[in-house]
Amino acid sequence: MTDFRPLLGVLSIAIVIGCAGPGGGGGAGSAACACEGAECACPGDPCTCGARRPESMPSTGLLTADAEGWHSGLTLDGATRVRWRGVEGETPTNRLFALELELLDGAEPVTGAEVGVSAFMPDHGHGMNYVPQTTELGAGHYRVEGMLLHMPGFWQLHVDVVRGGIASRATFDLDL
C-alpha cells in the first residue's frame, strides 16, 4: 500500500503558494483559500483570495445607496423591486439593527407579501446567528428587526418575497 501523506503535504503547500502568489491577494494570515486554482476576482480581499464560492448568489441589487440611503434591486424573476435601508442610516457590524424595506410592482406598492431577510458570508460558508422578524407597515413598507452581521467582510443580504404563492429573491452584496 502506498503512503500518500508526504504528497499531501507538498500539494497543500502548492495550493497555499498558488493562492498567495501574484494576483492572489490572500497571503499570510488569510483564511483558508477559496480560489482553488481560479483567477482571483478581488486581489485585495483580506479574507480569501477573492474567488466567490458556488454558494454565492448573483447580486440583483446595487451596493451603493442613493442620496436617501436606499439600496435598490429586483427579485430574480424581475417581478418585484426591492428597496432597503438601515433604519438608523447605516449597516453596522456586530450590533443589532433594523431595516426598512419597500416593495414595488412597477409603481404600485406590494402589500400582503410574505417577506424574509437573511444574510450569508459566501467566503466563510455561514450566515447570521439570528433570525430577523419582518412586520408589514402598509403601503408596500416592511420593517425587519433583529439583523446582526456579526463580523466584517463580504456578506450577501437576501430578501425573499412570496406573492401569490410564488417566491423570489433579491440579493445585495455588502462589504463591511
Automatic annotation (TrEMBL):
Q: Report the InterPro entries cross-referenced here.
A: YtkA-like_dom (IPR032693)
Query: Which Pfam families did the record assign?
Result: YtkA
All residue ranges annotated as the YtkA-like domain in the record: 102-159
Q: Which domain of life is it from?
A: Bacteria
The name this protein carries in UniProt is YtkA-like domain-containing protein
Species name:
Engelhardtia mirabilis
